[in-house]
Specification:
By secondary structure, this protein is mainly beta. 31% of the residues are buried. The C terminus is likely disordered.
């Protein structure tokens, strides 16, 4: 893994404005997909009166109709649709011990049974009958969220990874790190070498991966101070050399709070994308302090306008090559 570092003389245009229109619905992981001309969501759903354990369901956005539960005790669902079938991916439990996160002030005593060693596939042509199979088994890594796209003649899966006890790995750094797998048919998968990962230097979770115009674009959550998280965007041609988007984070909270479509308390309104001065270790743009006494300090922390490429990133240096 190599990360492109920006120079102080890099130049960029103004940050694009992104409008937050509200959450589609409250809940856990939700992946939109189009199948046979209809918009659906693959949703991870916690235990409720429909099913006593964690499960996956498919929801038709237009009609609101939901499928019967499937993928019991599988977590962090994502989806990919072809003309013939829908493929839903989820990860297994590591063990059957109870979740104890946040139940005490001692984080060392917490236990999280999620993040097992398997990626499971659920395939269906009618969204009612699902064929289940295990497509990856990686005992030396704990697997969490996944995201699948097609690009450059193959399918690529981004996998959020945490280290497993007894398997030290220099490519797994701050929880979490994103690794990659490849497939030609969405069924048979193999992990890419660990060098193809991003990034051990920072918290890098919940990947969403897409491919367009010769680049893989990935959005992940990065950790900010005070237990806050924001989406950051990166791109790569080869999953080894990575550029960090210059106008990160992509979106921050703020603005008005009208109700979302499902009545949840989503943060909506006009997003204020950050303008950051160092893309290698991006920092958020906090609210501007009021009053003249802060103006000098604010001028020091406000970004100058840097960079060249239309999306806000410079070219990958020729010295940064794949292994």
């Amino acid at each position: 893994m190599k990360e492109y570092l920006y120079g102080l003389r890099q130049r960029t245009g103004r940050a694009p404005v992104i409008k937050k229109l509200g959450a589609v619905k409250p809940g856990m992981e939700q992946t939109p997909f189009i199948y046979k001309g209809e918009l659906y969501f693959a949703e991870s759903q916690g235990a409720d009166d429909v099913c006593p354990v964690q499960y996956i369901r498919i929801r038709n956005e237009k009609t609101g109709q939901v499928s019967a539960p499937f993928g019991l005790n599988r977590y962090f669902a994502s989806a990919y649709a072809t003309d013939e079938a829908v493929y839903v991916f989820a990860t297994s439990l590591r063990d059957d011990k109870p979740m104890t996160m946040y139940e005490s002030e001692d984080a060392g005593a917490w236990h999280d049974p999620r993040g097992g060693h398997e990626v499971c596939l659920f395939r269906s042509a009618d969204l009612a009958n699902w064929e289940e199979m295990t497509v990856l088994h990686v005992p030396e890594k704990r697997l969490w969220n996944t995201s699948v796209c097609y690009g450059d003649g193959r399918y690529i899966m981004a996998i959020e990874v945490r280290g497993e006890e007894g398997y030290p790995n220099p490519y797994i750094g701050v929880d979490f790190t994103t690794f990659f797998a490849q497939s030609t048919d969405l069924v048979h998968w193999e992990m890419l070498p660990d060098e193809y990962s991003y990034t051990p230097a920072r918290y890098n979770a919940c990947p969403v991966l897409r491919y367009t115009a010769g680049y893989y674009y990935m959005i992940c959550l990065e950790a900010l101070p005070c237990a806050r998280y924001a989406p950051y965007i990166y791109r790569s041609r080869d999953l080894f050399n990575w550029e960090v988007g210059f106008h990160n984070p992509v979106m921050m909270w703020g603005g008005r709070r009208p109700p979302c479509q499902a009545g949840c308390r989503a943060d909506t309104g006009r997003a204020r994308p950050a303008r950051i001065s160092f893309a290698a270790v991006p920092l958020p743009r906090y609210q501007r302090p009021r009053g003249p006494r802060f103006s000098a300090v604010w001028r020091m922390t406000t970004t100058r306008r840097f960079a060249t490429a239309p999306w806000g990133c410079g070219p990958i240096p020729s010295a940064a090559k794949s292994p």
